[in-house]
Amino acid sequence: MGELILAAARMGAKRIVLAVGGVATTDGGAGLVQALGAKLTGESGYPLAPGGAALAQLAELDVSELSDLTRVEFLLASDVNNPLLGPSGAAAVYGPQKGASPDGVQMLEAGLARWADVAEDARGATARDAPGAGAAGGIGFAAQLFLGAQMRPGIEVLLEMLAFGEHLDGARLVITGEGSLDAQSLHGKAPVGVARAAAAHEPPVPVIAVAGVCALSPAELRAAGFAACYALADIEPDPATSIAEAGPLMERLAERVAADWLR
C-alpha cells in the first residue's frame, strides 16, 4: 500500500482513498510506513525484520526520510471501527481469522503495543484508540497517525459513490446481507450501513438481511435497523451442505422473502 501511495502521489493525486479490509498481516501498518521512507531498527541497530511479531523488538523509529505527503488528502474507508489494541483490537479480533494461534495473538498484541508506543512518541500524537485504527491488521492506525487520514465508514463512501439515496426513492424494500450476520457486523460493516441509510431516507424504507448464518437476536436486529433476517441455516442446519447447495437454498429463501414482503 505504501508503494501504491507513492506512485499515486508522483502521478499528481490530490486525494487518495485507502479502502482497507481483510489482510493476512497484523503489523499495525509498519510495512506501509517503511515503504514511505521510515526506518525501523532493533536494539542492535539493524533493520527490523518484517511482520507483526518482530515489532516487539522495535527500539527506534527514524522518520527523518519519510516522504512528504502533506499536499495529499487521505481518506480511510473502513468497514470496522475497532481500535488497534485490546480485546477489540486488530490482533485479538482479526488475528485468529487469519490463522493466528492464541500464543500468536499474544505475540502480535505485544508487537502492536510496542509499535504504538514508539510510533506515537515519534509523531507526538496518538491514534491507537481512534475508530478504525485496528482495521486491516492495524493499517488504519498508521494511516491516521502518519498520513493524517480521516476515517469514514467504508459503506458510507460506497453509498455516496453509488447515489444510494436516489435509488431508494420509490423503493418498497431493501435486501442486503453477508455470509455471517453477527456481532462483528454491528461494528460498521456494510449491511448495517445500508440499514441506517434506508432508515434515514424520507420516507424510511424497510430493510431485511439475507445471510448464511444469523447470530443476532431479534432485539439486536431491530436495534441495527433490520426488519428481519433470513438465513440459509434456518433451512439447512448443516454448514457443509449449506455451502455446497447455496444456490438452491437461496432460491427457497427468496420465496419466503417474497411471500412475506412482496405481496
Task: Give an overview in words.
The mean pLDDT is 92. The protein is globular and about 70 Å long. Helices cover 41% and strands 16% of the residues. It folds into two domains: 2-154, Glycerate kinase, domain 2 (Alpha-Beta Complex), CATH 3.90.1510; 163-261. It has helices at residues 2-10, 30-35, 90-94, 102-123, 139-146, 154-161, 164-168, 190-200, 218-224, 232-235, 239-244, 246-261; strands spanning 15-20, 39-41, 60-62, 73-78, 150-153, 174-181, 207-214, 228-231. Strands 1-4-5 form a three-stranded parallel sheet. Strands 6-7-8 form a three-stranded parallel sheet, sandwiched between helices. A two-stranded antiparallel ribbon has the order 2-3. The protein has 263 residues and is an alpha/beta fold.
Total domain units? 2
CATH topology of the largest domain: Glycerate kinase, domain 2
If classified by CATH, what would the architecture of the largest domain be?
Alpha-Beta Complex
Number of strands: 8
SS-derived structural category: alpha/beta
Distance from first to last alpha carbon: 48 Å
- Percent helix range: 40-55%
Radius of gyration, in Å, reads: 21 Å
Largest sheet: 3 strands, parallel
Please report the number of helical segments.
Answer: 12
Uncertain runs with pLDDT below 50, 5 residues or more?
none
